[in-house]
Amino acid sequence: MCLTYAMLHERGSSPAMYVCVCRAVTENEVHDCIAGGAKSARQVRDITGAGGDCASCVRKICAILKRSEDLLPTA
After folding, report:
1. What is the set of domains in the chain, with CATH numbers?
2. What is the pTM of this model?
């Protein structure tokens, strides 16, 4: 079943935002990689393939990594 934006909005979800169009990798997939232990764009690439083609998404991946680091509590 193909869900439209309106259908997703009604359900309280938002559509996945693509980080890497070449490999159809979403922000959620990148976040899952980071939650799984990825700490670099290279590690995200090795897991998802994002950044392995044209590499225009690497800056976005780095920004997501940076935001995730900023959210970690400091001791």
Report:
1. 16-71 (1.10.10.1100)
2. 0.74
- Residues facing 26 on adjacent strands: 18
d(CA 37, CA 2): 32
Short-list 60, 53, 66, 72, CA closest to 26? 60
- The residue length of the chain stands at 75
- Which tokens go with 73? 């509590």
Q: Is the pLDDT of residue 73 over 60?
A: yes
The predicted pLDDT at position 30 comes to 96
pLDDT one-digit tens code per residue, 29-48 = 999 999 999 999 999 999 99
43-52 long-range contacts, CB within 8 A, separation 24+: 48/20, 48/23, 49/20, 49/23, 49/25, 50/19, 50/20, 50/22, 50/23, 50/25, 51/20, 52/22, 52/23
